[in-house]
Write a structure and sequence with these properties.
Number of helices: 18
Helix content: 25-40%
Structural class: alpha/beta
Number of strands: 26
Strand content: 15-25%
Number of domains: 2
Largest sheet: 7 strands, mixed
Distance between the termini: 39 Å
Shape: globular
Length: 573
């Protein structure tokens, strides 16, 4: 494999404690090495006057699978085709909020990212998810199967059978080639099959007679029983509802009393995704009571050590919402009266897709924008908060550079309040963003986009740092931290990197994509003691309820998962 020596750049690496020092970075045999360990034949990359970081790690996005494909198919107005590629290397690109698989990989690479987590994989459609992951170039990917409304999980946890829950999770991860435990609107999506919801964590799920609180705590316990790389990943109840911050606090408090198990180095047992959507005060969108509750949420998050979260920052764009939170999508289409797609996945989950416009001429969109940024700016430990837009729900992932600009520049935030939002003064009155002076550093951005998410996912042994021995994923941005003081330069630089080396291979050279890379799919093989009861339950329910047989369920072979990277976990001890 090629050798590279990246010279003279300003390096930012929270793992190594490097805060903008000029440090040379070596890459050899696909791994990061000491600069002195590369040979004289190494290709030299001059990073003078530029910023050097490990490639980015995205903890939560919706980039592959059936609901993503629905979003592509029924939104021709979103296509925005780019035209023919300039070279024979790239494939045709299209789509804005729901880009094609090709454009997804290319845009992540342009932003200097090397890994993305598909955040909600319906187990029954895992083959579809992996087919799209396979077709996405350059970036490594993994997928989180959804468990929070799964019939097996609901029945086991209702009966207090944590070991059976863990055995079922291990089986399903193997069947779907999944990475960890995702929990969407726990209990509420199953209630949606009855035309209902679970607005709080204490509302019983119809028929199953179990509450979201029991589901959350049960899945945390099962996750830690297995010692999985990533903690339990939750999308809480009452997403997007005014006044939901109390439900969010109740959800976060379910992690109390738990500590992480396993050998992957994470400190947390619960990751709350797109926290912006769960930090609202007030009693309705229409009333003057709607307000930010970011302070209350962050007061709690800052007081504990076993929780991480990602922002879910609104980007004030037209976009396409999609989530396994079926009742929320129905609620959203009742609000905006735009087209709506809905599906129930037998025994497992549900999903909906609705277009949405975060119109800066409305107060609510402006307040949502402010709340997402406030959450990050109020954080004490930037290794616990990660940059996301819940792509594409709050906006497309290609806006991450814009979010970074807002976090790093008060001037940029003031410009939005004064010149973009129609109700900027009202946003100042009911949110906190106008009173926050804090501006994050590149070192803190590296925590939020590299070191932090890699550690939370249990992948710090692979990604998130320039430490020798880790994957050879390195990015060079055209941003000089000593002289560049224009906020727009931040967005421009993080949107279009100068160089990206992925897995030891140069894929972006002087801003141009020169390779489709050798991407991998990561999945977790969790070993548990033999459990005849769970296997008997699986066989019986497939015969009784599923429309497919068990033989057509498993994701197998390199047709679906080429170049797999398997992470083994042993819970048999």
């Amino acid at each position: 494999m090629s050798e590279y020596l990246i010279k003279n750049g300003f390096v930012f690496d929270p793992v190594l404690g490097i805060k903008g020092d000029k440090v040379d970075v070596g890459i050899k045999d696909g791994k990061i090495v000491e600069a002195s360990d590369v040979s004289s034949k190494a290709k030299k990359i001059d990073a003078s006057g530029k910023t050097v970081m490990a490639a980015g790690v995205d903890v939560h996005a919706h980039v592959a699978g059936p609901k993503v494909n629905v979003g592509r198919n029924y939104r021709p107005e979103d296509k925005l085709f780019k035209g023919s590629p300039k070279s024979g290397m790239k494939r045709m690109e299209g789509g804005f909020s729901v880009p094609t698989t090709f454009r997804t990989g290319y845009n992540y690479a342009r932003m200097g990212y090397g890994f993305v987590m598909e955040a909600a994989m319906p187990p029954l459609y895992a083959r579809h998810v992996h087919e799209e992951i396979r077709d996405t170039p350059i970036i490594d990917e993994a997928a989180l199967p959804v468990f929070g409304n799964n019939w097996f999980v609901l029945e086991y946890l209702k009966n207090g059978e944590v070991e059976n829950t863990a055995a079922y999770i291990a089986w399903l991860l193997r069947m779907t080639r999944g990475f960890g435990v995702k929990n969407v609107n726990p209990g509420g999506t199953e209630a949606w099959g009855w035309g209902l919801n679970c607005p709080t964590i204490h509302d019983p799920v119809p028929y199953f007679d179990i509450t979201p609180a029991q589901i959350i705590r049960g899945l945390i316990e099962a996750n830690e029983f297995l010692g999985l790389p990533h903690c339990m990943h939750v999308h809480g109840n009452s997403l997007g509802e005014p006044g939901n911050y109390t439900v969010t606090l109740d959800t976060l408090k379910q992690a109390e009393g738990f500590s992480p198990k396993g050998s992957f180095g994470r400190d947390q047992v619960l990751h709350h995704t797109h926290l912006q959507f769960h930090s609202y005060g007030g009693d309705s969108y229409a009333s003057k009571s709607f307000e930010s509750k970011s302070k209350e949420i962050m007061d709690y998050v800052n007081s504990v050590d076993n929780i991480t979260f990602d922002m879910g920052c609104v980007t004030l764009d037209e976009t396409t919402t999609m989530t396994a939170d079926g009742p929320f999508e129905h609620h959203l289409t009742e609000l905006n009266h735009l087209k709506w797609a809905n599906t129930d996945v037998e025994l497992e989950t549900a999903a909906g897709v609705v277009p949405y416009v975060y119109n800066p001429k409305t107060f609510i969109a402006g307040a949502q924008w402010a709340i997402g940024i406030e959450l990050a700016l109020y954080a004490n430990d930037m290794m616990k908060v990660f940059v996301t837009t819940d792509h594409p729900n709050a906006g497309p992932f290609t806006r991450y550079p814009r979010v970074i600009k807002w976090l790093m520049s008060r001037k940029a935030r003031e410009d939005v309040l004064d010149n973009v939002l129609k109700y900027g003064d009202t946003v100042r009155d009911r949110c906190f963003i106008g009173e926050i002076d804090r501006e994050l550093s590149l070192y803190e951005i590296a925590m939020m986009t590299r070191a932090g998410p890699a550690k939370a996912l249990g992948l710090a042994h692979m990604f998130g740092s320039l430490k020798p021995g880790l994957e050879g994923d390195v990015v060079v941005y055209p941003f000089n931290p000593e002289t560049d003081d224009d906020p727009e330069k931040i967005e421009q630089a993080f949107s279009n990197c100068s160089f990206l080396v992925k897995s030891g291979q140069l894929v972006i050279d002087k801003g141009e994509i020169v390779s489709n890379g050798t991407k991998r799919t990561l999945w977790v093989d969790a070993k548990v003691n033999e459990n005849p009861q769970v296997m008997r339950d699986v066989e019986q329910k497939f015969l009784k309820y599923y429309s497919v047989n068990l033989g057509n369920y498993e994701v197998t072979g390199h047709h679906f998962v080429p170049n797999p990277y398997v992470i083994e976990v042993d819970a048999t001890q």
